Automatic annotation (TrEMBL):
This is Homoserine dehydrogenase. The active site is at residue 203. NADP(+) binds at residues 9-16. Keywords: Amino-acid biosynthesis, Methionine biosynthesis, NADP, Oxidoreductase, Threonine biosynthesis. Belongs to the homoserine dehydrogenase family.
Length: 433
């Protein structure tokens, strides 16, 4: 059989990892696939010192790869929205299959890209885009295909999880850990995508679409980052038997779908609470299978390359039998349903609240009275003296589940109290049932 001829665009962390894996494990890959995968061409702005590309055609122009008649499959690893979109659409237009690790591209332009690919009879694969090396796209689209999926939730940003883990375990500074994540090649080109939850929202958008069979709706996802999570919150949560993780949660409800990314308190007994460092974990619950869990490295050159190369192999198999390829979002053409995404104030959850209050008699009664008047039950209270000279205490409360709109008005009332100083910190809780 003729080799599959691959063109790689972008030779950074993931591009370099992909090239090295394709060459380093070439024999293992050939034995599994029954044919060779050959790197036909590389487009890069600069050489990658970790890669020996001698003897391979190179160009500085990524569009050369998309148009080259000797390339069967284009691997897009440049990142970003606009140029990547143009590159992928050009490749499709030239009849090439595409593999990408670019979740931003898929979450925002995926509907258009998949339509163009279907019209041209080619496939676009993106396993590396969600939870790096964990084959979670394959698990949901294929392994769980018999299920009606109700929940997908997990840690889907390695950089953010690395930061929160290092802050909690070693007391390290946020900025210092982020700089290390960047040096290790985990972070996005713009790291605010990691710390503000945009990257996780891209991934959650994709997960929700393949889990529930709905078009990609990134603009409807609720996104909150980890930059406001303090060392105190990590410590108090732990004292109360919880961990704070940056979670993406997509849940089917009777009136629509929840699609939200935010810091979340999880009981420390849950598996996800114990996923640390750059590792990711995704829980998927289906009606037949029940809860399932997928764990592995969410970022980094080799783990991400593992998913890119598996996608190349999958698409290579479909060259012979195009009709057997799994649909891009896992549902047959015309079968996606436009499920409404619920506004975050319609979502119900329990809360962790932290506020600064005067350390005087009767203050606790005033504060709990406000919550009780708003119909919010308290599950646990912790009081920590922080500034004895000024008689200010941190009051930490865990509440029962309430609708977010109800909690918003209670927080406004709390912030209006004379005994409360500054803003109330609120972190949602989830038991991941
Ligand atoms: N780093 C990671 O752990 C993971 C990254 N990804 C995704 O993989 C993609 C690539 O990410 P990284 O490899 O980390 O980024 P990177 O910044 O290390 O590599 C991107 C490379 O593409 C090159 N490039 C960009 N635009 C170009 C153009 N117009 N022409 C030629 N070369 C161009 C850059 O010079 C750079 O070498 C992104 O979409 C990212 O979100 C996905 C999963 C994990
Ligand atoms: N920046 C991302 C890379 C993988 O998707 C992350 O940290 O998870
Ligand atoms: Na993956």
């Amino acid at each position: 059989m003729k080799p599959i001829r691959v063109g790689i665009c972008g030779l950074g962390t993931v591009g370099g990892g992909t090239f090295n894996l394709l060459t380093g494990n070439a024999e293992e890959i050939r034995r599994r696939l029954g044919r060779e995968i050959r790197v036909e061409m590389i487009a890069a702005r600069r050489t990658n010192p970790a890669c020996d590309t001698s003897g391979i055609r190179t160009t500085a122009d990524i569009f050369d790869v998309a148009r080259d008649p000797e390339v069967d499959l284009v691997v897009e690893l440049i990142g970003g929205y606009d140029t990547a979109r143009e590159l992928v659409l050009t490749a499709i237009d030239h009849g090439k299959h595409v593999v990408t690790a670019n979740k931003a591209l898929i979450a925002v332009h995926g509907n258009e890209i998949f339509e163009a690919a279907a019209a041209k009879g080619v496939n676009v694969a993106y396993e590396a885009g969600v939870a790096g090396g964990i084959p979670v796209i394959k698990a949901i689209r294929e392994g769980l295909a018999a299920n009606r999926i109700n929940t997908v939730a997990g840690i889907i940003n390695g950089t953010g999880n690395f930061i929160l883990s290092e802050m909690r375990e070693k007391g390290r500074d946020f900025a210092d850990v982020l700089a290390e994540a960047q040096a290790l090649g985990y972070a996005e080109a713009d790291p605010t995508f990691d710390v503000e939850g945009i990257d996780a929202a891209h991934k959650l958008t994709i997960l929700a679409s393949i889990a529930f069979g709905m078009p990609l709706q990134f603009d409807k996802a609720y996104t909150e980052g980890i930059s406001e999570v303090t060392p105190e919150d990590l410590k108090y949560a732990q004292e109360l038997g919880y961990r704070i993780k940056h979670l993406g949660i997509a849940r089917r409800r009777t009136n629509g779908v929840e699609l939200r990314v935010h810091p979340t308190l999880i009981p420390e007994s849950r598996l996800i609470a114990n996923v640390n460092g750059v590792m990711n974990a995704v829980m998927v619950a289906g009606d037949a299978v029940g809860p399932t869990m997928y764990y592995g490295a969410g970022a980094g050159a080799a783990p991400t390359a593992s998913a890119v190369v598996a996608d190349i192999m999958d698409l290579a198999r479909s060259f012979e039998h195009p009709a057997c390829a799994v649909a891009a979002l896992g549902y047959a053409p015309g079968e996606l349903q436009p499920l409404p995404v619920l506004a975050v104030d319609q979502v119900e959850s329990a809360y962790y609240l932290r506020l600064d209050a005067s350390d005087k008699p009767g203050v606790m009664t005033t504060i709990t009275g406000v919550l009780s008047q708003a119909g919010i039950n308290i599950e646990a209270i912790l009081q920590k003296e922080v500034r004895s000279d000024e008689q200010v205490a941190h009051i930490i409360m865990l509440t029962h589940s309430v609708q977010e709109s109800q909690m918003n008005s209670a927080i406004t009332s709390l912030e209006g109290l004379e005994v409360v100083t500054g803003k109330v910190t609120r972190i949602r809780m989830d038991h991941l049932n």
